[in-house]
Every structure is written in C-alpha cells, then in structure tokens.
Design a protein that fits this description.
Keywords: Ion transport, Transport. With 100 residues, the protein is an alpha/beta fold. It has one domain: 3-Layer(aba) Sandwich (Rossmann fold), CATH 3.40.50.10580. 45% of the residues lie in helices and 22% in strands. It contains 5 helices and 4 strands; from the N terminus they run βαβαβααβα. Strands 2-1-3-4 form a 4-stranded parallel beta sheet, sandwiched between helices. The longest helix has 13 residues. The protein starts with a strand and ends with a helix.
Amino acid sequence: MNYFVIGDEDTVLGFSLVGVAGLAATTPQEAKSVWDKALEDHLNAVIIITQDAADMIRTVVDRYLFSEAFPLVVEIPSPHGEGKSRDIRTLVNDAIGVSL
C-alpha cells in the first residue's frame, strides 16, 4: 500500500521527506494529469491532495470521495490557501444531494 500526494511544491517536498511520493500541480491541466498518473499505479491506496489542487479538479475528486471505494482520497488544507475548509455537513450534503 502506497501513499501519493498531489499539491503545491512545498507540500510535495514535505511529504517526500517522510517517503511519500507525489507530484506538484499548479494548473487544472497539471492537476488532472497528476491525478491520472496517481490512479495508474494500483499500489497507490491513499491519495493525499491539497484543497487548492482538489478545487482545480473538484468534480473528479468528488466522484472518488463519494462513490468510488478505492483509492482512499484524503483532502488536506493548502498551506497557502484561504484556510477555508469544507465542513462535514457540506460534505454530507454534497454526497447525498439533500441539505441537512
């Protein structure tokens, strides 16, 4: 089971210091390309993605968050982002399509 990180250069560098492979993405095209590359390796069981990178390809990420069983997607705050995270209520509302 491997981990793979997608995000800004600082995040990818930080995770690489503890042995987690990953690639930086600064544009939506790069984010989609890196996402596809992460999915190609079936040993990647956990994809860690920064919120900024996830926002660039939100529909793709949400599909895996809400409907796919594998790999596990973990969205983390971006170090240089607005600090605005999606709360659990928002995630549930998006997943089931009903406002709680």
